[in-house]
Amino acid sequence: KTSEGIALVDRDEDGVDRAFRADVLEGLRARRKAIPARWLYDDAGSQLFEDITKVPEYYPTRAETEILTERAGEIAAAVGPDRAVVEFGSGSSVKTPLLLDAIAPSSYVPLDIAGDFLRQAAIELSAKFPGLPVYPVEADFMAEVTLPSEVEKAAKLGFFPGSTIGNMVAWTAVELLRSMRLTLQADHGVQPLLLIGMDLVKDRAVLEAAYDDAGGVTGEFNLNLARRINRELEGTIPVESLRHVARWNDEYARVEMHLEAMHGIEFSVSGESFAMAEGETIHTENSHKFTRRSADMLLHAGGWSPRKRWLDSKERFSLILAEA
Ligand code: AVI
């Protein structure tokens, strides 16, 4: 699209559009309706997520920022000098400068599938850190990524903040950790490091409030998915008949977001008809929470050995340094 929003490509030719349609239709046909969380992040959804990070109940961003600020010296000492920082997903505009300030890296390589976001982040970073080589890479980091030749030989530090790993089920999380290991491996020499944010299991009420803030921002974020389906996939979902639900699933140690039908509804998407009974939900996101042991277990399964761990002062969130 142009900046005026004029579509330049035939939307059916567009791979993203086709993938969205396929995921939504498959998810709505299932006995338990579910849509992958990645579709929450269109422009409106990405802005709403930014807003979420500022609501009082959503502690993860503040807790992780506190760790990066208060423990900068310890983190720098543990990482050591001259690492090329490779950030997986370049959206975290606040945390990146904190890390780069702390460790004085040799270069910075932001990876993101969204090219516009990536280039914007790279420009802002270069302005803040003149002299730091920045090599943006537009890629889907769920699989191994070939890094620019300039950083081929450098020792790497992967950076994956925000507990985004928690949005994946274990199988996918392990796959991602293994891909990161391959991406970060240098030809020979120094083993790569990974600095990863992992949110901690805590009181259910605190967790559920973090994903259902009183101001309703998270609700809007979730409902935006239904609106997006209506906008982009010729949907007729009666959004006002859905309500946002966030609930702790103790068996899987995760907060789940759902869109729940407040009464029986019928609608169509891309010409296909669907119905939801009262109380039926569309599962839209998982946010897994970790204990010290479950975090270590996941990292080990992904080929990483945890070396250091820092918690915020209220012990809500962990930042872990692991070695390949
Ligand atoms: C991006 N991700 C780590 C957020 C989380 O906490 O799972 C997404 C989010 N969903 C609702 N609130 C925030």
Automatic annotation (TrEMBL):
Query: Molecular function (GO) terms listed?
Result: L-histidine N(alpha)-methyltransferase activity
Residues forming coiled coils: none
Name the top EC class: transferase
Query: What GO biological process term is on the record, naming one?
Result: methylation
The EC designation for this entry is 2.1.1.44
Q: Where is the Histidine-specific methyltransferase SAM-dependent domain?
A: 20-323
Q: InterPro entries from the xrefs?
A: EgtD (IPR035094), EgtD_Methyltrsf_superfamily (IPR051128), MeTrfase_dom (IPR019257), MeTrfase_EgtD-like (IPR017804), SAM-dependent_MTases_sf (IPR029063)
* One Pfam family from the record: Methyltransf_33
Q: Does the keyword ATP-binding apply?
A: no
- Annotated keywords: Methyltransferase, Transferase
Checking NCBIfam families in the record gives:
egtD_ergothio (TIGR03438)
Among PANTHER family, the record links this protein to: ERGOTHIONEINE BIOSYNTHESIS PROTEIN 1 (PTHR43397)
- Name of the protein described by the UniProt record: L-histidine N(Alpha)-methyltransferase
Please state the gene responsible for encoding this protein. egtD
